[in-house]
Design a protein that fits this description.
The longest helix is centred in the N-terminal third of the chain and has 25 residues. Helix 1 runs antiparallel to helix 2. Helix content is 68%, strand content 0%. With 101 residues, it is mostly helical. The protein has one domain. Keywords: Membrane, Transmembrane, Transmembrane helix.
């Protein structure tokens, strides 16, 4: 049986997992990228801190998915994870790509 809080956790798991991608990739490529530690764009943070920030996002997202392990057979939870992952990815891409909002 799916607990009520699983639906709430399923909102935050894809958020952290998707947010880790640009930070980790930028950091491993040696590029600077904004993090919350510097106040966001237009200020940029070091590649080393971006790798750490991306890894921490992935770790937290993985822990949240681990909390959902008993509900991953629920199609509503899986749909929520997939749809919100795509929505968060689209929002992040649009925010940092320079496209008109």
């Amino acid at each position: 049986m799916t607990e009520w809080w699983h639906y709430l956790v399923a909102v935050f798991a894809p958020l952290f997992l998707v947010n880790g991608i640009p930070h980790f990739v930028s950091g491993t490529m040696g590029r600077t990228f904004p993090t919350p530690f510097v106040g966001g764009p237009p200020r940029l943070d070091t590649p080393r801190r971006n790798v750490a920030w991306g890894g921490m996002n992935w770790l937290l997202g993985g822990v949240l998915l681990w909390l959902l392990r008993d509900s991953l057979n629920n199609p509503i939870i899986v749909a929520e994870l997939v749809i919100l992952g795509w929505v968060f990815a689209f929002v992040l891409a649009r925010t940092f790509s320079g496209l008109p909002r």
